[in-house]
Amino acid sequence: MTCIAVLNGPNLNLLGTRSPEIYGTTTLDDVRELCRRESDAAGLELDFRQSNHEGQLIDWIHELGREAQAGRCVGAVYNPGAHTHYAYALRDAIEGAQLPVVEVHISNVHAREEFRHHSVISPVAAGIVVGFGVAGYGLAVRGLIEATRR
C-alpha cells in the first residue's frame, strides 16, 4: 500500500500542553488520529513521525524521498516547527530528495512575531496551510493528495 507521511519537528511532542492559548489542547496523538482518518479515506497508509532533532528529520526526508521516487509514498505533510525559520539543511533535503511536501502550521505564523513570518521551507513546498489549528493537518493531507495527482 502507498503511504502518506506526516512529519513533525521540534516541540510538537508538547502539543496539548505547550501554549494552549496558541496551539490548543489537542495532543499529537489526536493529530495522528485525524491524519489516520484522512489517509484511510484516501486508501493510503499513514506514516506519522515526530523528532526534536534536525538530523533525524533530514534522514527521514531522504528516506521518504526515495519512497516517493519509487511510487511507494505520495509525499509528506510537514510541520517544521521552529526549524521553519532557519533550517536550510532541511530545505535542501526536501529539494534534494525530491520529496513532495505540504508545509503546515497550527497557528497563523504571519499574525505572530515577525521572525515567524519567513519560512525557508516554503520555497520547496507544494503548498502551505497556516492558521487553521490542528484541522490544518487534514487540509494539508488532502492538499498533498491532490497536488501529487496532477
* Overall CATH architecture: 3-Layer(aba) Sandwich
Order of helices and strands: EHHEHEHEEH
Q: Give the overall shape, derived from the CA principal axes.
A: globular
Task: Quickly count the helices.
Answer: 5
Low-confidence stretches: none
Q: If strands are numbered along the chain, what order do they take across the biggest sheet? A: 2-1-3-4-5
Question: What does the main sheet amount to?
Answer: 5 strands, parallel
Beta strands, count: 5
Tally of separate domains = 1
Q: Report the CATH topology name.
A: Rossmann fold
Q: Span between N and C termini?
A: 20 Å
Structural class, by secondary structure, is alpha/beta
- Fourth CATH level, the homologous superfamily: Dehydroquinase, class II
Share of β-strand residues: 15-25%
CATH class division: Alpha Beta
Rg, Å, rounded: 14 Å
Range of helix content = 25-40%
Give the integer mean of the pLDDT values: 93
Function: Catalyzes a trans-dehydration via an enolate intermediate.
Catalytic activity: 3-dehydroquinate = 3-dehydroshikimate + H2O
Organism: Nakamurella flava
EC number: 4.2.1.10
How is this structure best described in words?
With 150 residues, the chain is of the alpha/beta class. It has one domain: Dehydroquinase, class II (Rossmann fold, 3-Layer(aba) Sandwich). It is 39% helix and 19% strand. It is built from five helices and five strands. A five-stranded parallel sheet has the order 2-1-3-4-5, sandwiched between helices. It is globular and about 40 Å long. The two termini are 20 Å apart. The relative contact order is 0.20. The mean pLDDT is 93.
